[in-house]
Amino acid sequence: MALGNESRHGMWSSRWLFVLAAAGSAVGLGNIWKFPYIVGEHGGGAFVLVYLACILLIGVPIMMSETLLGRAGRESPINTMRKLTTTHNKSRFWVAIGWMGVVAGILILSYYAVIAGWALFYIWRMASGTYEGATPEFAQETFASFQAEPLHMMAWQTLFMILTVYIVGRGVIKGLETAIRWFMPLLFVLLIVLLGYSSQSGGFDEAVTFMFRFNWESLTPQAVLIAMGQAFFTLSLGMGTIMAYGAYLPNNTSIAGTVFTIAALDTLVAIAAGLVIFPIVFANGLATDSGPGLMFVTIPLAFSMLPGGAIFGAVFFLLVSFAAITSAISLTEPALAYLVEEYNAKRRRVSITLGVLCWLLGIGSVLSFNAWSDMPLLGQPTFFALVDHFSQNILLPLGGLLISLFAAYVLPKTVLAEQLGIRSGFGRTIWVLLTGIVAPLSVLLVFISALWPGGFDRLLALVA
Known about the structure:
Layout: H1 15-26, H2 29-41, H3 45-73, H4 77-87, H5 96-127, H6 136-147, H7 150-169, H8 171-199, H9 204-212, H10 221-233, H11 241-246, H12 255-283, H13 292-304, H14 309-343, H15 347-367, H16 383-410, H17 413-420, H18 425-451, H19 455-463
């Protein structure tokens, strides 16, 4: 398949726009609270080293695979896989990669918009001075009362979906590029401002120790498995987003260099987020292990105890909202691009349709925190938990696994040579080793661990 073709949806005007778009997809709510927390709990600096190794050995090869498939096909993930399998006479089974990405994106956005709506609400909540002089009990009760009101949650979910639909409906240049040009630089600026603020909070040294001390005793096999999973999920792999964005990548752009840049940016943002959050938490003697509550209970309380906390707390949730919106617009792209191609539909009309679909599915997640909180579904405690489990623990790992196998063993060498410049036998061997063996085996371990809790430890016990 010769180079030179272009996507019918438009093209990124530069390599850096693709870098910022893909980094925007990767940088989300998980970077803000999950990564710093798991670093502190699983060996600090030792965990960071393992995580970086996993990024290089798992995340980067799969991301390169997704990007090259997208650029080779120049269409939506579904039609890209159709095109590649038809052109090179391969099994149509591999088209499932595209379908899984589309479904995963819609499911994830349906509940992601709900959580992102919380962040929008907390911008106003912090700026209004609600938490000035607040107690831990007040912070917890405020969050609980917000979750107990489905109409209130739906209002903020709706606002977030309207913003997402508006941006993606304007197209690659007017919509995606314009949003990325503004949101990503602003995100980095806000992060730097908050870093400067948190460094003066009084808990910076303790936070650095918490995140980066080399505690090898905490680096268990389970911690290594967590590092593998985080390296895979943090780069938005397996959901078709990177493949869709790769379709808009100029031909003269180095895929390898670009992907390494994206991985570095994503990791730096995650580490910086930890250095924003934990100094403030430690300065006030608050808990570090409260999961989602860290963002919506502990952090508002921590900011309220510091000078200028109301303003900087609002800035923090503005940062979180920017991270959420850049991830959300990427989640819609695989499905949107496919529907535009398949039915020759107007992009704006399709974006509204998908937005309504995700909004309706999201109502189930809203109700999971109140009216449906005691309604188990298919082995999961709530509708929200079911959608999260099916998308994150089944569709994404399977998608990543199939992408790596297709790129390593099915895609012809000529396509690799055109897209990655891999022409030597040595380069091909390294590619197959990482993409065809290390990456899929690692994702398979994460997959098994997610479906069989405790199974990894049992397997290790058997081997020992």
